[in-house]
Amino acid sequence: MADELAGFTIGVTADRRRDELAALLQRRGARVVLAPALRIVPLADDTDLREATRACLDRPPDILMANTGIGMRGWLEAAEGWGLAEPLRSVLGRSYVVARGPKARGAIRAAGLHDQWSPDSESCEEVVEHLRRRGVAGQVIAMQLHGDRQPECTAALEDAGATVIEVPVYRWAAPTDPAPLDRLIDLVAGRLVDAVTFTSAPAAEALLRAAGDRTEAVLEALRGDVLAGCVGAVTAEPLVRRGVPVSAPSRARLGALVRTIVDELPSRTVSVKAAGHLLTLRGHAAVVDGELRPLAPAPMAVLRALARAPGRVLSRTALLRTLPRGADEHAVEMAVARLRAGLRAPRVVQTVVKRGYRLRVD
C-alpha cells in the first residue's frame, strides 16, 4: 500500500544511496529527513592505494578479501587509470576470492573474476574464521578495506601466519554540511522522528559521535520510542553493543530494510477510543476513523500525553512539560486549540474547568 508509512517521520543517515532509500520510504507515505552521517572519499590518486596495488603485483596474493562492491570497483578503476588494470586482474584471478557480501560478489563477477566463498553473516569475523580454518600460514592475503582499517581482522590473520596487504580504496569523512545531521540528532533526542535508518556501522558510530553531550539522550530514545532500522547485523553492531534493540532484515538489502520498517512501525502505534472516534497515533499525525490528520509537533505532543492515560485529567503544568523548552501555559492552550482543529473532532479533547484537559472516553 502507498500509505503504509503515512504519518511517520524517518531519518536516513546514508550518503551514497540516500536518494534511493528515501524514495522507497516516501513511496510508502513516510516523511523523510535526509542527514548523511558520513561521506565516502575515493582514494584513486592515493599513494597508499598505489603502493598496495604494486605490492599485489610484486607478490601475487593467494587470497583476496573483497569487502565492498564500491571498493572493488574503485580499486580496479584506479588501476585502469595507472595502466595496471589487466596485470591486477591477472594476479587476482589466480587468488582464492572471498566476497564478504552480495555487492562485493557482484563487483568481482563484473570484473570477470570468480568468487569461491561468502559468509552468511556478511561479517569480517566470519571471513577470518573461515580462512583460519582453511589455513593461511605462509600465504599472502589482499584485504580490500571498507573505510577505516580493520586491525583486529588483520592481526588475527597475521597471528595465523599470513602476510596481509591492506588495500585502502576509500575512507570515511564527516559530511560536508554537518547541519542536517545535527538537526536529526535533535529530532531523535526529542523523539520527533519515529525511526532512523543505518546502512553502515561507521554511520551509526558517526551519529553517536556527533551527538556529543546529547549521546545518552539519543541512546535512550533509540532504546524506546525511536526505531533503529539497520540494513544488516554488521551495521547494527555498534548500536547493539550499546543496548539498543534494532530491527534488521535477514538479507542486507535496502528493499528488505524498508519492508522491515513497514512491518515494524505500524505495530508500535497507540490506538484509543475517544468521544466515539477511533484514534491511532503515528509520528506526526493521528488517524481518526481511518483518515490521516497531520499535526504539528506541539499538538502531537499534547495528544500523546493525553493518550497515555485516556480519561485522566492532565493539568496545564503537566502538559507544559511535553512542549519545547521556553513554552508557557498559553502555549498549552494554543496547542490544545490546534489539536482540536487538526483532529477535526472537537469533542475528543475535553476541558475540565480549573483542572486541565483529558481525552473524552465516556
TrEMBL record:
Residue ranges annotated for the OmpR/PhoB-type domain, each copy included: 267-361
Keywords: DNA-binding
Taxonomy, superkingdom: Bacteria
InterPro entries cross-referenced by the UniProt entry: 4pyrrol_syn_uPrphyn_synt_sf, 4pyrrol_synth_uPrphyn_synth, OmpR/PhoB-type_DNA-bd, Sig_transdc_resp-reg_C-effctor, UROS/Hem4, WH-like_DNA-bd_sf
Coiled coil: none
GO biological process: phosphorelay signal transduction system; regulation of DNA-templated transcription; uroporphyrinogen III biosynthetic process
Alphabetized PROSITE patterns for the sequence: OMPR_PHOB
UniProt cross-references to SUPFAM superfamilies, sorted A to Z: C-terminal effector domain of the bipartite response regulators, HemD-like
GO MF annotations in UniProt: DNA binding; uroporphyrinogen-III synthase activity
DNA-binding positions: 267-361
Matches recorded under Pfam families: HEM4, Trans_reg_C
Protein name according to UniProt: Uroporphyrinogen-III synthase
Organism: Micromonospora inositola
